[in-house]
Batch of 3 targets.
Target 1
Amino acid sequence: MRKINNPLTLIILLALVIALAVVSNLLSGTASEAEEPDVAAEIAPCAAFTVGPLEITSTVVNTWVMMLLLGIGAFVIGRNLKLRPGPVQNMLEWIIEAIENLIREMVGVEDTTIFLPVVGTLAFFIGFANLVGLIPGLKCPTPDINTPLAMALVVFFSVPYFGIRTRGLLNYLKHYVEPIFLMLPIEIASEIARTFSLTFRLFGNILGEEIIISILFIVMPLFVPVPMMLFSIFTGLLQAYIFALLTCVYIGGAVKAHH
Amino acid sequence: MEWNNLPWDKIFIVLTVLVSGPGIIVGIVVPAIGQMIVAMSGLKAIARQPEAGDRINSIVLLSLAMLESLAIYVLAIVLILIFANPMIKYIVNLE
């Protein structure tokens, strides 16, 4: 694995993707073998296998497949960083710089080192989670409400973390009661409401997209869903961008001092 | 026909489906008008001051996302009404 552009590495990665997709499809295949094509069965997560009392859904399997791909890809690319970047490294650097600019603009700080891991991971994870449904055999993890809820909970807990880390505990708690103590319930309600808003925005967008694609697929399986699938690439990446943007705005609200 | 002998379960299901269509029309047209106003004023602002384009761009996207979530709430409610209605177990006799 000396070179990134080694064709053998790419072939191995591709074979891994296909093998994992086939395994995932086999694991979740029992539920989807209905005679009638069903919209709900195409999208809704089904139980892949059970471990004791726990039921492992296909969302978990697909998320782990995706995480494995991302991890292996990041490892292979990260071992081969060069001063004069190749195409893959160039693209990744462009994405990272775009996220850094977003943080600089929205959070309002010059040093992005403490914010980049959270925001960048969320953006990468959601972007790839929205795109992974395009691989045949894999289901999108995001139309399951648990995945967006987990992402929104990460944001919910990281906002006070960054607020306390940059401004101190007392200063952070003071912004709840500024300018008057009557703002306290409103602030708490808005913190909870925006968590649900983040959840349902991501969930609803991707679910609507997937429902339209599977309805088109049932009506006319050949070529008709393709334009909608191309459009779903755009929507998925846009949703990842918007999620990162809103995360930056919420973190910025906790980090910035009120004047 | 007596009032109690009407097929209430079928009427209920038909009613929920009939309500979902107009519901999602209203719930999508109104945020769409709001998004139109946001995009229009964003374009006007960028045309007046092109050097502030980046800042305006991100604020416009933020407002569009906020407005879009309204339509998404309606979509979620309509999907719940059609696919996973919580009231249906009280109306329909599941035996």
Target 2
Amino acid sequence: MAALEIDPTAGPADGLAAVVALRRLADLMEDAEVEHAMRAGWGWPQVAEALGVTRQAVHKKHAPRLIAAGVDLRRR
Amino acid sequence: MVTRLAPEARTLIATAEQEARSTRSPYVEAEHLLLAMSSAPVTDAGQVLASVGLTRDAVEHALDQEFAASLAAAGVSVAGDGPAPAAGVGSARRLRLGASFKAALERSVVAASGSRQIRPTHLLLGVLGAQVGTVPRALQLAGVDQAELATLTRESLAG
């Protein structure tokens, strides 16, 4: 098969790059919003339910960072 | 068969991991390597980038533009600077290597065949070998001719 001439900034490349960018945006938003909720006194169960993931998953992903940032994570 | 990384190349890869961490990326990708190179003007790779105007600020700006343009392709725009930067630097454990980083590294190994070590310039050739993805898009948005830049990089190796 002859090499396909691909424009990295048009057509399918644009659509695929949009997928990548949306994933990144979702990750950034998740970090910011989980922190927002925890600072507002939410517990892990509520955050997990709101995100539609398990408590273990959300805790594993965000607890180390929030503890490092000094967010008050009382037993909740 | 060379697989030995020159110390400067090793440093660049470590810096790329820091770049990924500070931009909150879960993976180290090719664009983080490009950022690391543009922040190291003392390396040959950094000099080649600077010669076409790709300073650290320029690369950062190009990547921001690429992010906005790609979101725009999905009809999404982000107000201001986007989501508030989250606190904390995350755990200290090593980040995983993303597919674009691995592909760039593989191309660097090929580019370095016949050399004693993989040098920063080989890493740059590896990054510039990508046909699609974030780096080619960012370069095009920055008005940089990727093929020409690759030629310049090869010339700097020869010279």
Target 3
Amino acid sequence: MSTTAFFVPRTVEQAIDLKREHGKNLVVMGGGTIVMGLVHDGLLFPKLAMSLARAGMSDVRGRDGWLEIGAATPIARLAALKGATTLERAAGMLGGPALRTLATAGGNLFAKAPYGDLCVPLLAMDAELEIAGAGGRHTVPLEQFLSRRLKNDELVVSIQVPKAQGRGAYLKLGRRQANTPSVVAVAVQVVLNAGGLCTDVRIALGAAAPQAVRAKKAEAALIGRRLEDVSIKAAAQSALAECNPATDSLASAWYRREMVGVFVRRALDEVGRST
Amino acid sequence: MATQLATHIVGFQLNGRPHAVTVAPLTTLRTALREELHLHATKAGCGQGGCGSCTVLLDNELVLSCLVPVTLVDGRSVTTLEGIGRPGRLHPLQEAFHDHFAAQCGYCTAGMIMAAKWLLDRNPNPTRAQIQTALAGNLCRCTGYLPIIEAIEDAAQRMSKGERR
């Protein structure tokens, strides 16, 4: 079976109309780095395909202290932002330079583990997604989005990132230093009060479950405590106990779980040292 | 809206000259280059964006031509290895790769040189670490990378001494 049509809509509305009209027959791509690989491998045979690259969703702008990232923004553009956030760090460590030119912020949200690193800092920063559908636009927390599917007539239009609170760290372990999916990826965001006690902690894990997840027991274990050896080790232990990694060609589930412990500890150590 | 049914025509600048290809939906830039335009420097490797052997420049940005539907290249500008030098008038990167034995089987070479050109266009005097970072998406299974990195360092020096490009 070959692909009979390739749509390149020029507006979000056109793209939604096409999704509504063609439903599951229509394969949607951002930069094509996921879809085209599946097509080459013979794992996907799109009857109809649509690129969102020209639909007017490639802007990055500040709005009321939030960063609004158009869904079709290339990862390379995020890596070049100058806000010194975990998001830029994660973007710069994703794939190689040529892949980052093509891959999009919105497309990466749909990547399954061990891909999809961008969700890790976005979860730790409590990002939200603007979703457009035939019935209008609404916003959902990224965490909620990850646990459901888009409706047939819906598209992710932008990623809304609140200003980072407190201090963050992002660490990725791969089998190589670059251009590799994650064995594990960890992002943490910690707010300390004047007395040095944790008042807000977010720990997000990549490649530790089918999709990026928060380690909520580990977060809760740190609230009201100082970032010090004992509390950090307890949080890391909790994170490795609550995650649900898979075995694949990169790493075993056992190894990933161990590395979740190691990298949560290192990320929290990094935040602790920087305060 | 650009709806491309069945086969359609895509026009773009290729190595400075206008070209057109007639392609089926989802035909990649790599396939158009190799099988329609018969430019074989750009290699077909993994087809997954993992090896870098299909690397070309699209509007002077580094891309993996195996992942780009050529429909999206319409009206844009593509540079392949064939566009930066030719026999008797090689690009300094091509000369330096030759002089440093930076190619063995040669399968990665076109992609390596395009990634290196992309780097040197932006940063004429890169550090070794910057070269390694720029080549992070290009795999070589023969050389161990050292001759490639040394060739790029040498090419940067040749170019800063005023050799062509």
